[in-house]
Specification:
The protein has about 230 residues and is mostly helical. It is built from eight helices and no strands.
């Protein structure tokens, strides 16, 4: 059973996810990035079911939702949606800049091929490999943005600014867990919960903050750059 602190953190995360989801739908941001809508829905649904099963621990019918098999399905879904989110973000970010397409395709393709080969042929655990693949993809998108100094919609910037640091923290915690084993499992789990709460809070803020007001630029140009209002 989770501790009171872990339960409170889990509830706070669910509230943050719900706030972010409503904000994304309310401001039409899902049309800017459909994968973020799928991600928020997937995490909110899976984690709510998992928490409900843990709170109703004495109900035999919910045993499967506390099993390793359910956890495996849940984590695989999360990792795949994060991969899709990074790819969609990369495509949308460079859509208006043909000069960046070759490098973007090369970086995203290399990251996807490497991840697929590692998961398919490697003997290492699947989830860390998928998480690492997501980090590579987000890093590739960030690299293209920095190299070409691309203008980004505020929501795209928020997604990159939120996921890149969190995935770095998650990868570091996973590496420590792999080396130290279950001795630090509870501590690392708490640190990950706090880091994830920060990510969810940031996404909720980004979904509800006021739209940037870009002046002296025609609506056609803003639409072409993906900076027009949703």
């Amino acid at each position: 059973m989770p501790s009171v602190a872990q339960l409170l953190l889990a509830i706070a995360v669910k509230i943050g996810l719900a706030v972010a989801l409503v904000g994304v739908l309310r401001h039409g941001l899902h049309r800017k990035c459909w994968s973020i809508l799928v991600y928020l829905l997937a995490v909110l649904t899976f984690s709510s079911v998992e928490m409900g099963a843990m709170m109703l621990y004495d109900v035999p019918a919910l045993e499967w939702f506390r099993s390793w098999r359910f956890w495996h399905i849940e984590q695989t879904a999360f990792e795949l949606v994060k991969l899709a989110l990074a790819v969609e973000l990369g495509i949308r970010v460079v859509a208006a800049f043909p000069g960046t397409w070759r490098l973007t395709r090369a970086l995203l393709g290399a990251a996807l091929l490497t991840t697929t080969a590692a998961v398919t042929l490697g003997g290492a655990p699947q989830h860390p490999l998928l998480a690492t693949g997501a980090i590579w993809l987000f890093a590739a998108v960030s690299l293209v943005v920095v190299l070409f100094n691309l203008p980004l919609h505020a929501f795209y910037r928020a997604i990159l600014a939120g996921f890149v640091p969190y995935l770095f923290v998650f990868s570091t915690l996973t590496s420590i867990f792999t080396r130290r084993g279950y001795a630090l499992a509870e501590t690392l789990g708490s640190v990950d919960q706090v880091a994830y709460l920060a990510l969810v809070g940031w996404l909720a803020y980004a979904a509800w903050r006021a739209e940037e007001n870009v002046q002296d630029v025609s609506p056609a140009v803003l639409q072409r750059l993906g900076l027009a209002r949703a």
